[in-house]
């Protein structure tokens, strides 16, 4: 997933404008703003309990229940709203795991002896060689099911991308004149790394983190759909869609509407990270 | 040239060996014992001596390194171990499941290539500006759609609303349509994006103006000069697309109830069947490494400019 994202940023450079005020970017900001506020204060947006029976079951969308109700009479919109917290915190955790471990590996690899570098990069090669879904499934089989374990598993799949990028950044920055000068004027390895190399290599890594966020949302909902995430009454987007699979023929809103929210959220995240990337490159 | 080939081959083998070793030791030190899990239940009525005998017959009482060596040579000779759940040989399980998944992934891949070319060509050479803009917006949208949701929406539309693909009693070919369509969408996206940008890049090169000035038509230019050059960058993501195909197979085979390797993977995780998952993980890593090796070796063959660089 991650390398697809990097491919995108490279090829979009030519065509996207540099302004953060383009209508599509503003829309993405708006959509993401809504999702984030759902996650922060879900109670403000719905008065229905996400796991309680609040009305007749399998009602089509109407003025009272905008997204309809599910097979046990729960309000679908309020489940989607409360589900935003589940999904966004999961994605945040996943990106944090990939970012911290990957960047540590990359920095260590780029700034230490060749033998250390070789060993770390072969580990990265192995991580890259295993398809990301299979890698996260292997981690889940070891750790067990659950929201946190799924987030860790998804995070582990992005370690390789962070490690490669941060390593190449560190190597690039270490060769520049001002780092040579910092060493020349008596700086120790630690201070030069902390004060010059790290701050200068961090920006592209942060851009990658933004991109990984969207892909983490997709992966987490896929694992939730397969049933490895949070247990059933939890309002998680992937799990909600899995639970209403049997009602596809009669109740289209149960799968279609939560899925649309998911697509719009991922699309907005991707749009924003491209915009940030384009601005940085300009 | 040969030293380059040998070095790449060595790297590939090393990656596979590390992947195998890592999964082996994770499996070995995982809490739980496959032999006890299968033969230790009181209903079978086996005495502890008999369980120990089974253990010895499977080599599970040997020191770790002997077991590691046996497992490694087993993998190399096609013996992938036994399922902790059913006791069936993993190699025979894989052989039964492989044709189903091969048909699905091949169809999806072909569909994705067709889709990617359509998007790339229409977005570059489309007659109307609005059409080109719509086409350029498709790949970012495609990459944001989860396969599991798309598959369900496709069932909703094509099976239940339009009644085009029967849910029950579909022919083999009919049953392939919806899952491969769902898998192909996220695969077509990066492919189309790479094609678009490399067509853009090649088109702006001086040699294209020269060929055009000599009187070549747009079609001639596209097929003879642009396409070949634009295809090369697409090769670099071949390994990546393989990973997406596997992920798509796991999801769609589960949704459509197809008994392929994806379904096998899903069930291995549900049953905590480590030997099965280990075999699938190691084999897909091997395929990924093999694809990348072929691409790396093929690149200088297809692009004469690289051939020189490698020799020097």
Care to describe what's here?
The complex is a heterodimer of chains A (282) and B (312). Chain A is mostly helical and 282 residues long. In chain A, 72% of the residues lie in helices and 0% in strands. Chain A has a single domain (78-281), classed as MetI-like (MetI-like fold), CATH 1.10.3720.10. Chain A starts with a helix and ends with a helix. Chain B has two domains: 2-76, no CATH class; 90-306, MetI-like (MetI-like fold, Orthogonal Bundle). Chain B has helices spanning 2-29, 34-39, 48-57, 64-76, 90-125, 129-142, 147-161, 172-203, 206-213, 218-235, 238-256, 261-270, 274-302, 304-311. In chain B, helix 8 packs across helix 10. The mean pLDDT of chain B is 81. At the A-B interface, helix 1, helix 4, helix 5, helix 9 and helix 10 of A face helix 1, helix 6, helix 7, helix 8 and helix 11 of B. Chain A: It holds the Pfam family BPD_transp_1. Chain A: Its main location: membrane. Chain A: Residues 84-273 form the ABC transmembrane type-1 domain. Chain A: Belongs to the binding-protein-dependent transport system permease family.
**Tally of DSSP helical segments of chain B:** 14
CATH-scheme architecture of chain A:
Orthogonal Bundle
Choose one word for the global shape of chain B: flat
Would you report the number of β strands of chain B?
0
CATH architecture of the largest domain in chain B: Orthogonal Bundle
Q: What fraction, in percent, of the residue positions of chain B are helical?
A: over 70%
| Strand-residue proportion of chain B | under 5%
In CATH, the topology of the largest domain in chain B is named MetI-like fold
What would you call the structural class of chain B?
mainly alpha
Backbone structural class of chain A: mainly alpha
Distance between the termini of chain B: 9 Å
Helical percent range of chain A?
Answer: over 70%
Put simply, the count of helices of chain A is 11
Instruction: Summarize the main sheet of chain A.
Output: none
CATH class of chain A: Mainly Alpha
CATH superfamily of chain A: MetI-like
Q: What is the count of distinct domains of chain B? A: 2
Biggest interface reads: A-B, 51 and 58 residues
Subcellular location (chain A): Cell membrane
Main location (chain A): membrane
Protein name (chain A): ABC transporter permease
Organism (chain A): Nesterenkonia salmonea
């Amino acid at each position: 997933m991650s390398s697809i994202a990097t491919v995108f940023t490279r090829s979009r450079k030519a065509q996207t404008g540099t302004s953060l005020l383009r209508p599509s970017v503003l829309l993405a900001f708006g959509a993401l703003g809504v999702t984030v506020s759902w996650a922060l204060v879900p109670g403000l947006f719905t008065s229905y309990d996400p796991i309680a029976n609040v009305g007749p079951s399998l009602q089509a969308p109407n003025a009272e229940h905008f997204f309809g109700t599910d097979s046990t009479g729960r309000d679908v919109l309020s489940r989607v709203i409360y589900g935003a917290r589940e999904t966004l915190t999961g994605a945040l955790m996943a990106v944090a795991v990939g970012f911290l471990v990957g960047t540590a590996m990359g920095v260590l690899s780029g700034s230490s002896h060749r033998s250390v570098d070789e060993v770390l990069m072969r580990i990265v090669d192995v991580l890259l060689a295993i398809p990301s879904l299979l890698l996260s499934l292997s981690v889940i089989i070891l750790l067990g099911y659950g929201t946190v374990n799924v987030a860790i598993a998804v995070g582990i799949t992005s370690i390789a991308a962070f490690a490669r990028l941060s390593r190449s950044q560190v190597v690039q920055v270490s060769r520049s004149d001002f780092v040579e000068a910092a060493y020349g004027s008596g700086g120790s390895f630690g201070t030069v790394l902390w004060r010059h190399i790290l701050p200068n290599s961090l920006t592209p890594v942060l851009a990658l983190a933004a991109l990984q966020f969207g892909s983490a949302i997709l992966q987490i909902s896929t694992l939730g759909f397969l049933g490895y995430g949070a247990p059933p009454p939890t309002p998680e987007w992937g799990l909600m869609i899995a639970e209403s699979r049997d009602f596809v023929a009669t109740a289209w809103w149960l799968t279609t509407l939560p899925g649309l929210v998911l697509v719009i959220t991922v699309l907005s995240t991707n749009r924003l990270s491209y915009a940030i990337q384009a601005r940085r490159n300009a | 040239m040969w030293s380059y080939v040998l070095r790449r081959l060595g790297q590939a083998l090393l990656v596979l060996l590390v992947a195998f070793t890592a999964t082996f030791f994770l499996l070995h030190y995982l809490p739980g014992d496959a032999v006890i899990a299968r033969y230790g239940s009181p209903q079978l009525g086996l005495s502890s001596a008999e369980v120990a005998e089974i253990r010895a017959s499977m080599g599970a009482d040997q020191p770790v390194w002997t077991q590691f060596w046996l497992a490694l040579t087993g993998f190399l000779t096609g013996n992938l171990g036994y399922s902790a759940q059913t006791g069936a040989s993993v190699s025979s399980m894989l052989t039964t499941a492989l044709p189903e998944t091969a048909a699905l992934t091949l169809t999806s891949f072909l569909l994705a290539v067709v889709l990617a070319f359509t998007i790339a060509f229409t977005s570059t050479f489309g007659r109307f500006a609005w059409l080109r803009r719509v086409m350029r917006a498709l790949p970012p949208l495609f990459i944001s759609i989860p396969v599991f949701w798309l598959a369900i929406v496709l069932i909703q539309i094509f099976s239940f609303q339009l009644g085009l693909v029967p849910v029950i009693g579909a022919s083999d070919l009919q049953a392939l349509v919806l899952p491969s369509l769902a898998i192909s969408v996220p695969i077509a996206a990066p492919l189309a994006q790479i094609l678009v940008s490399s067509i853009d890049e090649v088109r702006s090169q001086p040699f294209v103006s020269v060929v055009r000035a000599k009187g070549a038509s747009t079609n001639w230019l596209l097929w003879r000069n642009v396409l070949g050059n634009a295809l090369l960058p697409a090769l670099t993501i071949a390994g990546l697309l393989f990973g997406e195909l596997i992920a798509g197979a796991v999801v769609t085979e589960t949704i459509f109830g197809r008994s392929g390797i994806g379904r096998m993977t899903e069930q291995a995780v549900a049953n905590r069947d480590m030997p099965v998952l280990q075999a699938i993980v190691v084999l897909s890593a091997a395929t990924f490494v093999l694809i990348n090796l072929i691409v790396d070796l093929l690149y200088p063959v297809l692009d004469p400019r690289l051939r020189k660089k490698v020799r020097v």
